[in-house]
Amino acid sequence: MVSMQEVAQQQRALILMSRIYVGSINFELGEETVRNGFYHFGTIKAINMSWDGAAGKHKGYCFVEYETAEGAQLALEQMNGVIIGGRNIKVGRPNNVPQAAPIIARIQEESRKYPRIYVTSIHPDLSEADVRSVFEAFGKIVSVELAPDNKPGKHRGWGFINYETHQAAADAIASMNLFDLGGQFLRVGRALTPPLPLYPPNATPIVPGLAPILPDPNAIAAANKAAAKIQEQGMIGWMHVHICSLYALLFV
Fold it and tell me: Which residues, in sequence order, are CB contacts of 216 under 8 Å at separation 6+?
């Protein structure tokens, strides 16, 4: 039985794995420039600029949080030292990552069991079938899963491919990273998390390596009973207030 503490620890570790530090940013550049430089690696959840209120500008660094650990890792590998705005930016991990190192190592160790790759910067007009037809050249594919968008039939430009063998996965990474597919350069890397279902934006995620923990039926029944009681008490209070108000109008 997985404890709630272990679930919380893995959730924190996944958040840390999905964040990168970006330094040596030109002071004249803003958040939009950072986003344009880093969105190719996956969905960006947030960009936190180091804002200096007194100076009225940022301090030359920021933190970028991706929806996936894989997006953050690819950005770290491919953007460190790239010139943006006349400066070689520095990309690394936040200082608090070592605190979760043992849990991160466990998650990554679990992921190595699967011949699975992460693919991003996929053209919006390409379907899962299109992606499969390109990547099956490296070996038999078990499944292709593109992250669904809120719009029916649309994806968010990234997903995972599960191969039958590790060699096929390695060959696909070596051959397809920065491959021009439909006018966009793919970014391809090894999956850092075990297989999970992909959900539209704002859906409740499931912690990698863990089955979803459902509340005990007795707890659900008790919660429903308590909610009904609170609602009943609220209605009684509402009636009391309105009766008093009506009395005041009639007799005062």
Answer: none
- Residues of the chain short of pLDDT 50, as ranges, are 204-231, 233-252
User: Would you say 64 and 19 are in contact if contact means Cβ atoms under 8 Å apart?
Assistant: yes
Taking the CA atoms of the chain, what radius of gyration do you get in angstroms? Answer: 24
Contact 25, 89 (CB under 8 A): yes
Kindly write down the DSSP assignment for every residue of 153-170, as one continuous string.
T-EEEEEEEEESSHHHHH
Q: Give, as one character, the DSSP assignment of residue 181.
A: E
pLDDT of residue 33: 96
Q: Looking at residue 179, what is its pLDDT?
A: 97
Nearest to 161 by CA among 147, 141, 176, 179: 141
Reading the block at residue 77, the tokens are: 């590998």
Give the pLDDT of residue 99.
75
What CA–CA distance (Å, rounded) separates 98 from 94?
9
User: For position 176, what pLDDT does the model report?
Assistant: 97
173, 70 in Cβ contact below 8 A? no
Residue type, 80: N
Exposure class string for 87-98: b at 16+ Cβ within 10 A, else e: eebbbeeeeebe
Give the position of tokens 């459902």.
Answer: 214
88 - beta bridge partners?
Answer: 83
Q: What's the pLDDT score for residue 250?
A: 40
pLDDT score for 5: 81
Q: Which two tokens stand for residue 100?
A: 């979760």
In a 3-state reduction of DSSP, which class is residue 130? Answer: helix
**Full-model pTM:** 0.75
CB atoms within 10 A of CB 210: 15
Which residues, 6 or more positions from 202, have their beta carbon under 8 angstroms from its beta carbon? Answer: 150
pLDDT for residue 154: 95
d(CA 7, CA 15): 12
